[in-house]
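sorry for the late reply, my laptop died twice this morning and i had to redo everyting from scratch. anyway the thing you sent over, i finally got around to it. pasting the sequence first so we're on the same page, its 72 residues, then the predicted structure underneath. double check i copied it right bc i was rushing
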Amino acid sequence: MQHFYDLAPSMQNARVEQWQRGKQTGALRLGTNGPFEQLVATFDDPARRNALLYVSCANKQPYDVWWPNASL
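ok and here's the structure:
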């Protein structure tokens, strides 16, 4: 599997943080690409290890608006 760092190489000023919701865990990569904020989420669960969420939109909406209520 390709690492999620390689899947969005155009992200600038990216930061990585770990996430947890209930028993689910994973990593988030947050950054910008021009005027867009981008969020890439991966899962630690072996059944979802090949899954990747990629969200891109204006302002800080992916992390501040979409991510807190995203159904995983």
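The first strand starts at residue 12 and ends at 21.
thats about all i looked at so far, will dig more tmrw
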